[in-house]
Amino acid sequence: MAWWKAWIEQEGVTVKSSSHFNPDPDAETLYKAMKGIGTNEQAIIDVLTKRSNAQPQQIAKSFKAVWQGKGKDLTETLKSELCGKFERLIVALMYLPYRYEAKELHDAIKGSRDDVSSFVDPGLALQDAQVRLRPAGKKIRGTDEMKFITILCTCSATHLLRVFEEYEKIANKSIEDSIKSETHGSLEEAMLTVGKVRQDFDGCCLAQGAGTRDGTLIRNIVSRSEIDLNLIKCHFKKMYGKTLSSMIMEDTSGDYKNTLLSLVGSDP
């Protein structure tokens, strides 16, 4: 049976170790992707979805060195720069397999995560309000407009609504008032429109009920990508008449979708 195991390990995986791997250039790429205003999400996807699970652990060590002795933790930096389902998926790639499964079991038992698409992690919402929106809204060296724009345009409607609630508690004023006081002209109008649309959309999502079970989707793709995801993809197509990647394209969007597709790989 050794040959069968070897065949599965070779043919079943969608994510393999990068040949001639060197963690230092990857760490530098991630550092530049998250340095300064804005975030280069595609650079993060290109690095972390093309490395086997053991390799990001080495990248994380190099990342601390890149920060010139400041001891920045890669996982925590990713959490502060990303949000929503995209953040959850990218952060999952940073865990060793047994630690990831232990965390998922704990969260499932404690109920701190959920597969329903309308669920919002209150801790992540509070973090976004404190770390990303609140500093950007203070009148200290002007407003960091990119932080407002990024979070307004990349986070899910349900997550964003909870962030707005937390922001109002911290800042003692609504997100709309902050936008009005810190921006003007066409930028102010655009940001207010996006904020309103997101909140209106949230009501529609809740009324329609749950869609994609993102927790289950993330967990299975992350945990099986280095084991037998290619074999699962073949059975998926036989059982449901559609490829896994085509359903991901239909039911997800943005950087979250791109990351999933990168991990899933080409269709069988």
Automatic annotation (TrEMBL):
Cite the entry's keywords alphabetically.
Annexin, Calcium, Calcium/phospholipid-binding, Metal-binding, Repeat
Q: What GO MF terms are annotated?
A: calcium ion binding; calcium-dependent phospholipid binding; phosphatidylserine binding
A Pfam family assignment: Annexin
Q: Does the keyword Nuclease apply?
A: no
Biological process annotations from GO: endosomal transport; endosome organization
Record-listed Ca(2+) binding positions: 209, 211, 251
Q: Which Gene Ontology cellular component terms are annotated?
A: cytoplasm; nucleus; plasma membrane; vesicle membrane
PROSITE patterns referenced in this protein's UniProt entry, alphabetically: ANNEXIN_1, ANNEXIN_2
Q: Which InterPro entries match?
A: Annexin, Annexin_repeat, Annexin_repeat_CS, Annexin_sf, ANX8
Superkingdom of this protein's organism? Eukaryota
Q: What is the similarity comment for this entry?
A: Belongs to the annexin family.
PANTHER family for the chain: ANNEXIN, ANNEXIN A8-RELATED
Entry comment, domain topic: A pair of annexin repeats may form one binding site for calcium and phospholipid.
Report what the protein is called: Annexin
Q: In the record, what lineage is assigned to the organism producing the protein?
A: Eukaryota, Metazoa, Chordata, Craniata, Vertebrata
